[in-house]
Amino acid sequence: MAQPQVLAARELQRRLATDPPPLLVDVREPAELALAALAHDRHLPLSASEDWLPQLEQLLPRDRDLVIVCHAGVRSWNFACFLMERLGYERVWNLSGGIDAWSCEVDPSVPRY
């Protein structure tokens, strides 16, 4: 069973400075983004998956590293597993501890909630 790789917040910070950076996919709800934003490339709230799932292949290229982000790392882990197990994506990472870890370890200006 394929599983995403785990990525710590500091490692994500380092990888975002590489060329090309990984594609950040935020699966949190719009209200969560309003509380604590992290620059992301794709916002795919899980509650609206029926809206974006049919276009997922166009939204998430297979030739880029994908880092999935949520509040604490649980929803993103589940979505990352779905991408790998059900859709055959291979280059998938999960931000361990989610945006909360980013706030604590990398950028304290991002509010915690």
Please characterize this protein's 3D structure.
The chain is an alpha/beta fold and 113 residues long. The chain has one domain (5-105): Oxidized Rhodanese, domain 1 (3-Layer(aba) Sandwich), CATH 3.40.250. The chain contains 6 helices and 5 strands. It has helices spanning 9-16, 30-35, 49-52, 56-59, 74-85, 98-105; strands spanning 5-7, 23-26, 42-43, 66-69, 92-95. Strands 1-5-4-2-3 form a 5-stranded parallel β-sheet. β4, α5 and β5 form a beta-alpha-beta unit. It is globular and about 35 Å long. The mean pLDDT is 96.
List keywords for this structure.
alpha/beta, Oxidized Rhodanese, domain 1, 15% strand, 5-stranded parallel sheet, 6 helices, 113 residues
Sum this structure up briefly.
The chain is an alpha/beta fold and 113 residues long.
Chain-wise SSE layout:
Blueprint lengths: L4 E3 L1 H8 L6 E4 L3 H6 L6 E2 L5 H4 L3 H4 L6 E4 L4 H12 L6 E4 L2 H8 L8
CATH class: Alpha Beta
Indicate how many domains the architecture comprises.
1
From the 3D coordinates, which CATH architecture would you assign?
3-Layer(aba) Sandwich
| Net shape | globular
The number of helices is 6
CATH superfamily: Rhodanese-like domain
Structural class of the secondary structure composition?
Answer: alpha/beta
- Unreliable stretches covering 5 or more consecutive residues: none
Distance N to C terminus: 33 Å
Secondary-structure element order, as H and E?
EHEHEHHEHEH
CATH fold category name: Oxidized Rhodanese, domain 1
Overall helicity: 25-40%
Q: What is the average of the pLDDT values? A: 96
* Share of β-strand residues: 15-25%
Spatial ordering of strands, largest sheet? 1-5-4-2-3
Query: How many DSSP E strands?
Result: 5
What composes the largest sheet? 5 strands, parallel
What would you report as the Rg, rounded to the nearest angstrom?
13 Å
